Amino acid sequence: MRIRDAALRLAMTFLITLSVSGARAQSAQPNKRARTPEYTFKVVHIYPHDTGAYTQGLVYLNGFLYEGTGQNGRSSLRKVRIETGEVLQRVDLSPEYFGEGIAILRNEVVQLTWQSQKGFVYSLNGFKPLREFSYTGEGWGLATYGDDFVMSDGSSEIRVLNGRTLKEKRRIKVRDGDVPVLRLNELEMVEGEIFANVWQTDRIARISPATGKVLGWIDLKGLLSPMYQLQRDAVLNGIAYDATGKRLFVTGKLWPSIFEIQLVRKDH
User: How many angstroms separate the Cα of 197 from the Cα of each of 25, 152, 206?
Assistant: First the structure.
């Protein structure tokens, strides 16, 4: 009996050791991160776009598109009729400035420049110059965020700017899981999320402004036929949203078209 009891105790000890070792091994394995949702698109409508417009910023307001264009000597701010592409109003920047993103707040249009560390504020009606402001680093994308603005600078961080003073309040670190998302460019607020295209790609990140977490990816590959991208830098760069009509518009630098699209969830 003693021999059998000893053998039984030995077997139980062995089983417990295996169980504990297995639990430790399992806990040592990294948790598999849920895959970030991905979306493709359905084209709803195609509108004409000026192929000479090096699009840097795009905003929808009251039935019109407002567009900021770039390149030294060709930078401008425009009011555009969506249906025809007709430029109804325009102001050109001095040749030393490379225009970047734009946003509209309280009947004023704000426009960034790339490396001049200077921005401009215009009246919405007439594009009358009102004032200038400064910031450190580069200016890329800009969007209205409640009573403030969000601004990109080509990094993985989005700055929050005071809507009145245009001074930086804080930064949002954008991550897809644990990975920083670099080259964030044109910005747009869409139903409480920041939409940001990644420069020189066909992808738009859907970002939580509260946490910086990437909530989803929009893949726009194939939206514009390669035959129309005649220049290497004719890349996706322009997002505008009609919050009332729930319409999403996208375009790119020197593209011949502006696309109204609907998002379609990809099946994995």
Answer: 40, 10, 9
E-strand ranges in 2-136 read 38-48, 55-61, 64-69, 76-81, 87-92, 99-105, 108-113, 118-123, 129-134
Q: What is the pLDDT of residues 224-234, one digit of tens each?
A: 887 666 677 88
Q: How far apart are CA 241 and CA 58, in angstroms?
A: 9
Q: Note whether 143 and 189 are within 8 A (CB).
A: yes
CB atoms within 10 A of CB 203: 16
Residue closest to 66 by CA, chosen among 87, 45, 94, 43: 87
pLDDT band per the 50, 70, 90 thresholds, residue 8: very low
- Cβ proximity of 171 and 127 under 8 Å: no
The Cα 234–Cα 65 span in angstroms is 20
CATH homologous superfamily of domain 33-265?
TolB, C-terminal domain (2.120.10.30)
Q: For residues 150 and 171, give the distance between their C-alpha atoms in angstroms, rounded to a whole number.
A: 9
Helices (H), 29-182: none
Q: Which residue has the tokens 């603005």?
A: 149
| DSSP codes of every residue in 110-124 | EEEESSS-EEEEEET
Q: Which residues contact 198 (CB under 8 A, 6 or more apart)?
A: 181, 182, 183, 184, 185, 204, 205
Q: Is 143 within 8 Å of 105 (Cβ atoms)?
A: no
Report yes or no on whether pTM surpasses 0.90: no
